[in-house]
Specification:
Blueprint lengths: L2 E6 L4 E7 L1 E6 L2 E5 L6 E5 L2 E6 L6 E6 L2 E6 L2 E6 L2 E3 L5 H29 L3 H7 L8 H7 L13
Parallel strand pairs: 1-9
Antiparallel strand pairs: 1-2, 3-4, 3-6, 5-8, 6-7, 7-10, 8-9
Helix pairs in contact: 1-2
């Protein structure tokens, strides 16, 4: 029994083949999926995806910046922001991307500290709340301290 596996990015299909096992980076660790696994939908975090085509075979490695995974009836699809086979990685480009990611993380931390200072929210809560998948209604933003008032309607006439 095998898993029909496909990993797709906005640019291309990175890999499509039958596999025996896959290990994906997820929130809080990893998940390893074997044939006949229960249905699964989740978020893939940035990191390394490990694939085995056979039970005792060699592992193939892919690097991903994150995405989503769906498994149903031994068909597994990963929709990734980016994904590359280890042999495809351009080290100079990867180093540039790492430096850019570090700068983005520093900027995010400065923003988080400013939000914490201005709203009175604890920094740990702001870090959690500024995750890219976190949304607030206008009422929640007001209660949080991000906005002073909500404009219900603007007459443009």
């Amino acid at each position: 029994m095998m898993i029909q596996f496909k990993i797709v990015t906005p640019e291309r299909t990175v890999l499509e083949e039958d596999i025996y096992q896959i290990t994906l980076p997820i929130e809080g660790g990893e998940v390893t999926i074997l044939p006949n696994h229960i249905p699964y939908i989740g978020t893939v975090k940035s990191g390394e995806i490990l694939i085995r085509k056979e039970m005792n075979g060699e592992e193939t490695s892919l690097a991903t910046s994150g995405g989503f995974v769906e498994l149903h009836d031994n068909t597994l699809v990963v929709l990734a922001d980016t994904a590359e086979r280890a042999e495809e990685i351009d080290l100079a480009r990867a180093e540039t991307a790492r430096r850019q990611a570090e700068e983005i993380m520093k900027a995010q931390e400065r923003i988080n500290r400013t939000i914490a200072d201005e709203t009175g929210q604890p920094l740990s809560k702001v870090r959690e709340d500024t995750d890219r998948n976190f949304w607030m209604s206008s009422e929640e933003a007001k209660a949080y301290g991000l906005v002073g008032r909500i404009i219900e309607r603007v007459d443009m006439a």
